[in-house]
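Support request, priority: normal
Reporter: lab tech (M.K.)
Component: structure prediction queue

Hi team, I submitted a job for 2-(R)-hydroxypropyl-CoM dehydrogenase from Croceibacterium atlanticum yesterday, and the status page still shows it as pending. I've pasted the exact input below so you can check whether something in the sequence is tripping the parser. The sequence length should be 281 residues. Please let me know if I need to resubmit or if it's stuck on your end.
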Amino acid sequence: MKELEGVAAFITGGGGGIGLGIAQCLARRGVRLAIADVSAGKLVSARALAEEEGWAANAIFLPLDISDRGAFAAALARAEESCGPLRILINNAGVAVNGPVAEAGFPDWDWALAVNLGGVVNGIVCGLPLLRRHGLGGHIVNTASLGALMPPRPTRGIYATTKSAIIALSEHLRLDLEGSGIGVSVLLPGPTRTNIEDSWQLRPAELREGSRFDGLAKAGTTQPPADLPWRDPTEIGEMTLAGILENRPYIVTHPEYAGAVKARNRTIEDAIADWGDAGNG
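Reply from support: The job had stalled in the queue. We restarted it manually and it finished. Here are the results:
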């Protein structure tokens, strides 16, 4: 995509954090926005910010639980009614589920999979036909995490599992849509100033009962080393905007983590080499 003025975009998790940062950057380019979020309070705050910055007239604010397929389809329909043919779909919403993966119970998995992975699947199944229908081309951005490409870290097993799946999903979707005029990028953010660690408050009551480590999600995130920056959501928004315009397969926000990613890849490559040597022995 090269021209964004007047284009319609749908953003999940758009009431705060990275989603709102992306919305702000798209709004500055004249994009008509449908901002969806499960938190009514965040939608109120996002609307207030839009009014303050002068782009509220080009935006609608929709309550949405992305794990609800019927609600997702209805929200997309409402977005097209208000903003026009959908051209940009940003599957950004996600939750943090922190705790030792070996101790996780079904409620922990069910919530993380339903929101982090299921929400992206719902967005694609419900939204992709809309991007195809008008024949104008478009772009899909799925938010994963740079942490999903790094060596394992304590308490991040479930989160990394869901985000790793989003990477694979995005890579295959991009391949499937090659030549269609619809681009696909996977957003791989590092440490960003968001409130994702407070997302445990949104966990449904029925998925708290039986959780083996729900309380650990309240402990807050592990701080990265002091020499690695926490980025502002609008910085991530600008990077995402560039990724859309240039149809980049990967939008990586923190090159400072390249060493950790290479270390994990090197371990895999060494294992392959070891097995190759064993087969030739």
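Residues 216-222 have pLDDT under 50 and may be disordered. DSSP finds seven helices and seven strands in the chain. Let us know if anything else looks off. Ticket resolved.
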